[in-house]
Amino acid sequence: MAAAAGPRLLPLLLLLLQLLAAAASGVTYDHRSLVISGRRRLLISASIHYPRSVPAMWPKLVAEAKDGGADCIETYVFWNGHETAPGKYYFEERFDLVQFARVVKDAGLYLMLRIGPFVAAEWNFGGVPAWLHYIPGTVFRTNNEPFKSHMKSFTTKIVDMMKEERFFASQGGHIILAQIENEYGYYQQAYGAGGKAYAMWAGSMALAQNTGVPWIMCQQYDVPDHVINTCNSFYCDQFKPNLPTQPKIWTENWPGWFQTFGESNPHRPPEDVAFSVARFFGKGGSVQNYYVYHGGTNFDRTAGGPFITTSYDYDAPIDEYGLKRLPKWAHLKELHKSIKLCEHSLLSGNSTLLSLGPQQEADVYTDHSGGCVAFLANIDSEKDNVVAFRNRQYDLPAWSVSILPDCENVVFNTAKVRSQTLMVDMVPETLQASIPHQWSIFTERIGIWDKNDFVRNEFVDHINTTKDSTDYLWHTTSFDVDKSYPASGNHPILNIGSKGHAVHAFLNNMLIGSAYGNGSESSFSVHMPINLKAGKNEIALLSMTVGLKSAGPYYEWVGAGLTSVNISGMKNGTIDLSSNNWAYKIGLEGEHYGLFKPDQGNNQRWRPQSEPPKHQPLTWYKVNVDVPQGDDPVGLDMQSMGKGLVWLNGNAIGRYWPRTSPTDDRCTPSCDYRGKFSPDKCRAGCGKPTQRWYHVPRSWFHPSGNTLVVFEEQGGDPTKITFSRRVATSVCSFVSENYPSIDLESWDKSISDGNPVAAKVELSCPKGKNISSVKFASFGDPSGTCRSYQQGSCHHPDSLSVVEKACLNINSCTVSLSDEGFGEDPCPGVTKTLAIEADCS
Ligand SMILES: *[C@@H]1O[C@H](CO)[C@@H](O)[C@H](O)[C@H]1NC(C)=O
Ligand SMILES: *[C@@H]1O[C@H](CO)[C@@H](O)[C@H](O)[C@H]1NC(C)=O
Ligand SMILES: *[C@@H]1O[C@H](CO)[C@@H](O)[C@H](O)[C@H]1NC(C)=O
Ligand SMILES: *[C@@H]1O[C@H](CO)[C@@H](O)[C@H](O)[C@H]1NC(C)=O
Ligand SMILES: *[C@@H]1O[C@H](CO)[C@@H](O)[C@H](O)[C@H]1NC(C)=O
Ligand SMILES: *[C@@H]1O[C@H](CO)[C@@H](O)[C@H](O)[C@H]1NC(C)=O
């Protein structure tokens, strides 16, 4: 019997086991949290966008996120990178979504898949393929059949790919959440009844995909039941989901901000990021995602716009180049550990809110097993405070939260940064040490090359014309000036009006000027004094897009390009050229030939030069370059150049444009973390190039025979282009006696010991480097920030020797604030700080 029954029963049994396993590993939720494999969970999640790095970087980025305390990786899915033409898909290289998901799985982390497929994300056209705009009758993100049908096909395609790999948690995989649409709530009203219908359709379409994991819609007040709405903001502690049966989820906590060409560089202080996270979990939050944990690079022409920079560094915990940003990364890691110590009571306990002062409060959670955790907050943005809680005194710096996993001992305060600061510099390398004089050039014709594409007596919309196949659109016209010119009284001015984004103006084959909009306003008008000649004058205008808009109501209808051109200041009035005969040409000749491609096909077009021409507009440069030594990440220094595009070995590094940012008062030498953050706070680099260095992934280099191709629009000095290695050169630390000193790794042990541990400074150079000199050391009341510390009125005379003894010529060291070298108290009654700056080499 057994032998006979086996073959029939076994498959059934296996099926039953599989079903049980699926149910056990599935994801549901209640009012408190997601429930994974039957257990409530607090989750720290980290956004890493796969096409903003390269596959060779993925394992390390994911490992750094895991090491930083992430349970989960989050990514958008980038539709226009995948569906390059209707029904034509691309999933290779940076766009190998399955491989990225596998890297996350292999690291043992969960995955949150925000399919969108509209994503915004400062990504070109918000992620929607440009071709979809040109399918007749299509309107994006509303109750529109062509849009919905393409959105549904793509969503289904992605879900099916994930199902095929058995990636959903319901299949035993690691995808625990999926998102449809993105921040639609901001704009739904603008779409009227169609907006509401679309939001409901999107949610229902997602639910019908049957993934077995919950769907979310972020910043969306109107969602079908069973879809969870979530929060995106700098702070989400006050957020409440639509339904009381749903958990509080924060899909985007912005640890910094993106950059636009022509603007300075925003920073969000780690103390404030930590404050926002601690407030969120203290107030019942259950999933918190850093958008972004690694921002990376907008390679090629993927940057959204207009004017989003090629760098998408975002001041994230891992920098654009894949290096941990300290202290931010490490401060948040300690925060995550501290929150995890509280997980059980937070998830199973009852919460009580206690007032501890006018702007001070405690969120206390007690559970059945006697556990108690407390989050003590001082939300005063100026004054430090001492609060009493359960008969003890706690000092709470302004705008900070202390975490007490036992309602007694502080393991973490958001404003007391114990971690070291790592200072990173771009160290220049020569571009070609071993292979000099290997330049070749190709000069674009000014104006129409080959034949024009069409002639019109008016201006056409730029984006409608290029359909984003290129940034560039030529317009040329000519006009006659009579023989009596120049007569006195003529002061001609060329006036150009444009909807955006940028233009270079040429008169009689000379570049006479350039103009651009800026971050908040893409349109511009420009007035250039010119010299005309008697007879025929030729005007050639190169109009450019710098990334298509990535969000906003009806954003796909926002055009670009020239709107009016005339010459004023003539004795006899204004010459209006707007309705002249304009000849149009889409794209550049060099793009048409694919000059950036590594193959030999274009060899005869390139002209070898021993010295490349400088300050010459519309020039393509090709040069053989050496591989920068070592394995540090590499940036290409383009400070000597104007604006253009650059490739290494055929890989598009992206747009470069070291456009100078304005000098304004948003750049302050020191940044006050206290008070509500906004992107205008704590900027750096005012009056400097917005983006000087462009990330070139190491994996794009060959061992030898590397080719850099640059297309320069305005003119620059290509001989000054260099690679730079991104190198950690020094470390700093600033720790006070009253900083939490409990070792989070052995929390249980440290409290049962009952012995107070003194605060300590830990310094560590990158692997392979030692602390080579101590630049500053003061035990007393020093002040300032890394690389500009200053001694205060209290300073232990042996500070330097104590630190040198402990730290010199080794990779890492620890100096306790109770070190016997500091035996003599330099100033009794004063809270002492140990500040150190040291070089690594
Ligand atoms: C939490 O509150 C509920 C309802 O008031 C009560 O039934 C439960 O016992 C409380 N749990 C604890 C751990 O205090
Ligand atoms: C004014 O003078 C310019 C330059 O000679 C000529 O091209 C244009 O047609 C004249 N405009 C009028 C309105 O006469
Ligand atoms: C000339 O061009 C400028 C900028 O494009 C525009 O603002 C102005 O109205 C034009 N003037 C005339 C008289 O057409
Ligand atoms: C950007 O352009 C707008 C409109 O032309 C102008 O008001 C604003 O001052 C400009 N901002 C900067 C930072 O240049
Ligand atoms: C682009 O072309 C379409 C179709 O002709 C038109 O409806 C739309 O207004 C144009 N867009 C702009 C920005 O001009
Ligand atoms: C760093 O110090 C260690 C221990 O003193 C030594 O073995 C090693 O060679 C040093 N490394 C460098 C790069 O100086």
Automatic annotation (TrEMBL):
One annotated GO molecular function is: carbohydrate binding
Chain coiled-coil ranges: none
Where's it found, cell-wise?
Secreted, Extracellular space, Apoplast
Q: Which UniProt keywords apply?
A: Apoplast, Glycoprotein, Glycosidase, Hydrolase, Secreted, Signal
Reactions accelerated catalytically: Hydrolysis of terminal non-reducing beta-D-galactose residues in beta-D-galactosides
Biological process, per Gene Ontology: galactose catabolic process; plant-type cell wall modification
EC identifiers of the protein: 3.2.1.23
Signal peptide limits: 1-25
Keyword check for Glycoprotein, yes or no: yes
SUEL-type lectin domain: from which residue to which, for each copy? 760-841
| UniProt cross-references to Pfam families, sorted A to Z | BetaGal_gal-bd, GHD, Glyco_hydro_35, SUEL_Lectin
InterPro entries noted in UniProt: BetaGal_gal-bd, Galactose-bd-like_sf, GH, GHD, Gly_Hdrlase_35_cat, Glycoside_Hdrlase_35, Lectin_gal-bd_dom, Lectin_gal-bd_sf
A single GO cellular-component term from the record reads:
plant-type cell wall
Q: What does the similarity note say?
A: Belongs to the glycosyl hydrolase 35 family.
What name does UniProt use for this protein?
Answer: beta-galactosidase
What organism is the protein native to? Triticum aestivum
The gene it comes from is LOC123062776
